[in-house]
Amino acid sequence: MESIRLALIDDQRLFRQSLAALLKNIPGIELVLEAENGIDCLERLGRIPDLPHIALMDMEMPGMDGIELKDLLQRKYPQIKIIVLSVHAKERLIVRMIEAGSSGYLLKNCDKEELVMAIHSVFKSGFYINAQVLKAVQTASAKKAAMTKNITHIPVDVSAREKEILQLICKEYSNAEIAEKLFISVRTVEGHRNNLLAKTGCRNTAGLVLFSVKYNISEVV
Description:
Helices cover about 50% and strands about 10% of the residues. The chain is an alpha/beta fold. The chain has two domains: about 5-135, Response regulator (Rossmann fold, 3-Layer(aba) Sandwich), CATH 3.40.50.2300; about 150-215, Winged helix-like DNA-binding domain superfamily/Winged helix DNA-binding domain (Arc Repressor Mutant, subunit A, Orthogonal Bundle), CATH 1.10.10. The protein has a five-stranded parallel sheet, with helices on both faces. Helix 2 runs parallel beside helix 3, helix 7 crosses helix 10 and helix 8 packs across helix 9 (about 185-200). The chain is globular.
């Protein structure tokens, strides 16, 4: 079974070294890169043979912070999924980072079990949405609905089949599992997923999950 390759980017040396030591002792996870900021990360990425599957990154770092690094990684290495590690619990910031393309958002005081769960979920399904992120999205959606007086209207045309696929995505089904369940090809599932991304303007699977929750198409399990 393929190991999950990780990059860890954080300027707080003690936190980074402690987390690196923890990650190195988890079976099935391989820490392939450590960096202290975005500039350091990009330089090191060019020198390693295999890119990480997932980057765990802080938001506030000198030289190049996590927000700028996230944007650069998404342009240059779109295959690398991003999990934000932050001390900030502000709901608008959480929503902003997920809508901007992050696959997950964790507070630095989360426990080991949740961190490992998030890594595996992002590797398998492309997203990890915990209760805190879900609450942030629901709060932001409620505020927006109160201003627009439009709570349930979906702003784009989503077909019945696309709704089915969204619901299964939210249950962490892979493309192959969705195809088997709906008796369609994997390519058809991929086509529907790409159409949904284009219609909704979402950047990745995590964005589709938030869209689905926001407009009451499905719930996150």
